[in-house]
Amino acid sequence: MSETKTEESQPELKRVLGSKLLLLFIVGDILGTGIYALTGQVAGEVGGAAWVPFIVAFVVATLTALSYLELVTKYPQAAGAALYVHKAFGVHFLTFIVLFTVMCSGITSASTASRAFASNMKAAFTGNEPAASDPALLFIAVAFLLLVMFINFRGVAEGVGTNVVLTLVELSGLLMVIFIGFYAIAGGKADWSAVVAFDTPGDKNVFLAVTAATSLAFFAMVGFEDSVNMAEETKDPSRIFPKMMLTGLGLTAVIYVLVSICAVAIVPVGELANSSVPLVKVVETAAPDFPIGKLLPIISMFAVANSALINMMMASRLLYGMSRQGVLPKFLSIVHEGRRTPWAAIIFTTVIAIGLVTFVSSDPEGEVVALLGGTTSLLLLAVFTIVNISVLVLRKDRVDHPHFKTRTGVAVTGAIACAYLVLPFAGRDSGEYKIAGWLLVIGIIMWAITHLTNKRGSGGTAAEIDPSKIET
After folding, report:
1. What is the DSSP string of 35-73?
2. Domain count for the chain
C-alpha cells in the first residue's frame, strides 16, 4: 500500500498532531463556546454560585477522562468510544449508535458556536447586544458554517494551524475577563456576597438547580473526547494522550472558575442570565472606559469559531470512517485527490448543522444557544455513561503492554454521574431530547438503507462495522 492510497484507492489522512498541537487542540476545544456563551444561562439556574456547576462538570469530565485514558492506552487505536464499546459488548448496532451519537454531538456543538458567533459579531460591529429574534443572526450563523466548511475542506493541517491561532486568541479573551474582573473587584466594584448566593428558579430546589446548571456547564468541559477521535491524525497517540488530556482539563477548569466568579461578582445575575454575550457584559460593566475591553466581542467571535472548526473536523471524519466501513452510504467516504480531505462528509455534516441552527432559530422564544449546547452535553453524557461501563467490562481482557489504569470506584462513579445527568429529572429542557432523537433517527435510517443495499448487492450478510479500522 502506498502512503497516499488505501486498499480501496482512497488517499489516507495525514498525521500532523504532536503533543503541543494536541494540547492546543484540547484546550482550544474546551475553552470555546461554552464559557463564552453559556455563563449567563448557568447563573440563571443557580444564581451567584455559578462557579459550582463548572466545578461539578469538571469532576464528572475528569472521572470519564480517566476511563478514556485507561482504554486509549490499553487499546491505542482510532475510533475512541466506539472501539471501546465494540470490544466490551460486541454488538455492532450499539457500536454504530455510539459512533453516530459522537458525530452528532460535534454537529450540535458547531451549531451552538455558529449562533454564538452571530451574536458576538452583531455586538462587535453595532456596539449593542442583539435581540434573540434578530433575523440577521441566522444569516450570519449560516455564512459562518459555510466558512468553517471551506477551512475544513482545505485540510487538517490548515485546520489545526488555524486552531493554534484561535486558541491563543480565545485564551487571551478569558484572561482579559479575569484581569479586568479582579481589577474591578480590587476597586470595590463587586458584590462578593453574590458569589456564594444560591438563587434558584421557583420550581427547583438547590440540588435540581445545580444538576440542571451542570448539564449546561458540562458543554463547556467537553473536548477531550474529540482528541481521541482525531487519533488517525495524531503522532504516537498512546504516549501523549494521558498527559495532554489531564493537563487540558485542569487548565480549563481553573480558568472557568475564575471567570464565573468575576462574572457574578460584577454583573447582577438577572442581567447576566438575559445576556447573549455575557462576558462582554462583564467587561463593559467592570471597565466601561477601558479601550481594550471593546475587543472582547471580536475575541469571542474567534473563540466560538475555534469550537466550530474542531467539532466539524471531528464530525466529518467520523462520518467518513463509518462510510469506509460500509455502514453508511459509500459516497460519504469520497476523499479529494488534491487536498486529501473527506469532502463529501464535510458537506453532509455542514448541511445538517445549517438545518439544525435554522430549525431551532425558528422558535422566537427559544434559547437557541442553551438548547443546542444542552443537546451536545446530553449526547456526550450518554456516550460517556457507556464508556465508563466499558472500562469495567474490559477488565477481564488482558493486554501484553503496560497501560494507565483507573480505579474501579472512579469508573463506577463516572457512569452513575453521567447517567443521572442524561435523565429528564436532572432538569433538562425537553427540546434537547427532541433534537437528539431526530438526529439519531436520521442516522438509523441511513444505516438501515446501507445495510439493506449491501446485503442485496452481496447476496449475503451486509458489512459489519469494525471501529478499529475507522480512520477518524
Report:
1. HHHHHHHHHHHHBT-THHHHHHHHHHHHHHHHHHHHHHH
2. 1
Do the beta carbons of residue 454 and residue 243 sit within 8 Å? no
Rounded-to-integer distance, Cα 405 and Cα 26, Å: 21
- Phi, psi for residue 210 in degrees, rounded to 5: -65, -45
Task: List Cβ neighbours of 341 (8 Å cut-off, separation of 6 or more).
Answer: 152, 153, 154, 155, 156, 335
Residue in 329, 294, 276, 364 with CA at minimum distance from that of residue 462: 329
CA end-to-end distance (rounded Å), the chain: 19
CATH number at residue 338: 1.20.1740.10
Rounded Cα distance, 113 and 106, in Å: 11
Asked, for residue 368, whether it belongs to a domain, the answer is yes
Residue that is written with C-alpha cell 479582579 in the block: 182
Examine residue 308 and state whether it is found in any structural domain, yes or no: yes
Distance set, CA 117 to CA 21, 272, 310, 362 (Å): 24, 18, 15, 18
As averages over each run of 10 residues, the pLDDT of the chain (472 residues) reads 44 63 76 82 87 94 92 73 86 87 90 89 81 82 92 67 73 90 85 79 78 89 72 66 84 92 90 85 84 77 80 84 78 75 88 91 70 92 96 89 87 96 87 93 88 65 61 52
Which of 311, 323, 144, 351 is CA-nearest to residue 224? 311
The 10s digit of each residue's pLDDT in 219-270 is 888 877 766 656 556 677 667 777 888 888 999 999 999 999 999 999 988 8
In a domain, 12, yes or no: no
Measured between alpha carbons, how far is 316 from 309 in angstroms, rounded to an integer? 11
Is residue 178 within 8 Å of residue 259, measured between CB atoms?
yes
